[in-house]
Structure prediction request, 643 residues.
Amino acid sequence: MLAMPHRLVSPRTASPQELDALVHVLDGADIMVLKFEGTITHWSIGCENMYGWSYQEAVGRNVSDLLATRPLQQQDLIGDQIRSQGFWQGEVVHRHKNGHDIHVAARCVLVNLTDGEHSIIQTSSDISKLRRAEAALRSREAHLSSILETVPDAMIVIDHRGTVQSFSKAAEKLFGRTSDEVCGRNVNALMPNPDRQAHDHYIDHYLETGEKRIIGYGRVVTGMRADGTQFPMELHVGETTVNGERFFTGFVRDLTSRYKIEEDLRQAQKMEAVGQLTGGIAHDFNNLLTVISGNIEMVEDKLPPGPLRDILKEAQDAASDGAKLTGQLLAFGRRQPLNPQSADLGQLMSGFSNLLRRTLGEDIKLSTILSGSNFDVLVDSSQLQNAILNIAINARDAMPKGGKLTMELSRVELDSDYAKMYPDVRSGNFILIAITDTGIGMSEEVRKHAIEPFFTTKDTGSGTGLGLSMVYGFVKQSGGHLQIYSEIGRGTTIRIYLPARSERNLQQPDDAASHTVPPLPTGNETILVVEDDRRVRRVAVARLSGMGYSVLEAENGRNALDSLRSNADIALLFTDIVMPGGMTGDELAREARQIRPDLAVLFTSGYSEPALAAKNIIPGAQWLRKPYTARELAVTVRELLNA
Ligand code: ADP
Ligand code: MG
Prediction:
């Protein structure tokens, strides 16, 4: 039996009886015998099963007709080959009796019959399942490669030696290399050293020990682009075994932008913390300065002109320099008393440009551009001018050989997407003041630190490092934000975004009254001084007494209220805003007004309470910024009492 196939192929001669016997013996196989021109003479049970046609139906029919053999154009070639070589083997598509296609691997052998006729023995096997599986595989492959082309994450497949097998479109973009360049090379070309060297060891270690260091975990590593630049990336690695060979699939996500956002956030938090600290220190220091300069002032008044007075004058000057410094620090710490007023920035800037021109000198050309109209904001204009002046001075310093300074005003809307990109930015309508110079620019490092207090690249004496800190604090406190854009050698743009005034908050805070009352006015009314710091209180009491007033004092809100209840002739409440002990100055003032609706109120503070500044809770109240001079105190007190 086993010898039969050899006899079929090789000797090519058989008697009709042998042919009958063959088909009979191999009845279960798919075997048919045809006359050379195609007429079926033998049809096994295997064929009946495979094609659905019975022996009776098949025998005598032309095989190509019966089975709708395709591809038909090959039929001639097949015939030719069989004739010349006695043999053909290949794939055809046949049709089952019920109409469906059958993919068949066929094998035809020419047999010379002893009677001189030729026959073809054809054996077939149904490979439809195989073909279907292949088609499914192809479609899955197409599906997969369409995914590979579109997934935003880069995908890299390597074998156990680290050789890259596939490299997705996103990977090409991320690493700046084409798939052709990378495939077939070691994956460590995508890593900077020392990771590059460590990588082979990683794989070996894993293959030897099975200890999972990367597989299945996400970890952050450093990638390297074709141009050598490096970037943080998150790597997830999966593993598959194909035909006994291990492959690793790496999914890579670029972390650059996430890192950037996180870094911005850290920077914002740092500025917040430094601001709190600076503001706190400056606030306490202000109280000390108030004591120092207040005491000096009192001694000064009692001394006759002469050398001793000069010494005190010098101390007083130093104290006022100190006050200036704390003022700057308070500005950075967002605790500078602000006096926001409705202002049209367009007008403000034009009015301001003469001063700027003088500051910048002749070698710097100043131009102001207003894009559009309506630049209404609620802002402390003198502080804004101060900020712009600081920026202009920085620009001047950056353009020692002259250049151009452009100030541009426009209205912008920052949407929530934008706000998401910058952690400390709120969305909304803003007036943008962009101030651009053509100076030396800043390095990335300088730009990062420029707003930090005391950061300066200038020589001692020419820079304090507080300019941009003040600008930053002021802009933040005004509800806006600050951006610095700079390119080395090209110039710098400082952008100040101030919240545009919407129709809703149109009511203005009371205009600060002008201080035109005659010098050191006096009076004899009764004033209640509330201040928790004993020394500050003593100065205030001494000053007011010196001006002729009767002075009562209290160290906290509760004592102050008691005092108010028992002394009907108190005409003015002079209180610190921030006090320990559960009651702030403005709370005290509100309760005091319940007892005495006509009571005049004067606040003092090292920094403004935003609530007070913005809402003006106590009608007619005024406030003094610490440290204040005796003159400021006298003038303001008199003004309030006369009102
Ligand atoms: P200061 O001017 O006292 O140094 P600033 O806070 O105003 O302090 O500025 C901090 C630093 O930022 C400067 O020392 C300088 O290095 C850099 N800088 C600020 N503005 C510019 C600018 N327009 N061009 C180049 N560098 C600038
Ligand atoms: Mg400066």
Summary: The pocket of adenosine-5'-diphosphate (ligand 1) is lined by residues 390, 394-395, 398, 437, 439-442, 446, 450, 455-458, 463-469, 492 (CB under 6 Å). The domain at 341-509 is CATH 3.30.565.10 (Heat Shock Protein 90).
